[in-house]
Write a structure and sequence with these properties.
The protein is mainly α. The protein has helices at residues 6-26, 41-46, 53-75, 80-97, 108-129; strands at residues 35-36, 106-107.
Length: 137
């Protein structure tokens, strides 16, 4: 392997691993399933007493699973606005695809939470290192 390709190869691997983790969580058939296009409905339900662990896990999990993608996008040199647009696009694609996966839920809130995860991962990565990576050519 070319020594100069090492960091890029690791970023490619991190990017693929992030996408694979998201796919593993979001495309596995489940039970139930519904379409909820009411903004903030799932989020409010998750934080309204009595707190239900499965709802809290769903809300926080949507943020956490997308945070590594945001970190990789930062490392690749994307500014926050472009990373957020990638997160929105990818999340909308997932939600539309889930319409045909048995038992999966399609939710407006999932798009919001997934995008928040990308923004959070991007921001944490940027703050952690304190330096700006060079954009890839």
């Amino acid at each position: 392997m070319n020594p100069e390709s090492g960091p890029h190869a690791r970023l490619d691997l991190a990017f693929i691993a992030s996408l694979a983790a998201i796919a593993a969580v979001t495309f596995v058939p489940s039970h139930g399933g519904y379409v909820n296009l009411q903004p903030f409905d799932d989020i409010v339900a998750a934080f309204t007493p009595p707190l239900i662990p499965s709802l809290l896990l769903g809300v926080t999990g949507n943020v956490i699973i997308f945070a590594p993608l945001g970190a990789v996008l930062w490392r690749r040199g994307l500014p926050l606005t472009k990373a957020v647009l990638v997160g929105v696009g990818f999340s909308v694609g997932i939600e539309v695809t889930q319409l045909i996966v048995p038992g999966r839920t399609t939710s407006f809130d999932d798009v919001l939470l997934n995008t928040l995860g990308v923004a959070l991962g991007h921001s944490i990565a940027a703050g952690w290192t304190g330096s700006r990576p060079e954009p890839e050519s």
